[in-house]
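name: query_chain
kind: protein
chains: 1
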Amino acid sequence: MSLTREEVHAARWRMVSWLGWGLGAGALLALGVLWRLERSQTWDLPAIDPGRLVALRAAAGPVPAAGTWLVALNPGCPHCMKSLGTVIAEHRDDPARPLISVLVVDMPQRLDAQRLDALPGDAVWWDARGDWRRRWGHRVYGEIMHFDAEGTYMGTEPPPPDPLP
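structure:
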């Protein structure tokens, strides 16, 4: 018994279709396993620790009663810079505003003076050891970590949404 050309084509199409479904299911399963491993890990709480973070620019005065907001960014990321600009602009005229600081992440080398001067914010810290990602488990550029006036971590909020054009 020989198969017609159409039957061979249909059989191949079914095989490719099943292969596609199998690959999709395998990818979804792998993603679920990775998510589970990531979420089951115990992370350290974020901390503004001068022993672990490098101060590139210190704040001009003491930490206000409203505490410190630490915005994680990579200076090469336009979205990060836009998020930081939005946070600063929203609180520029607030007399009770927190100290808005920058945490430079995922940069293997210290920023040069020109790039450092281009960063707005009250203070700039550099995560030279990669604590933000490896010890704290954070991954979202532009996120805002809140600390009270004593430096206790209070929580993290996502980056502000991009303004509509």
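note: The beta strands are 54-57, 68-73, 99-104, 123-126, 144-147, 153-157.
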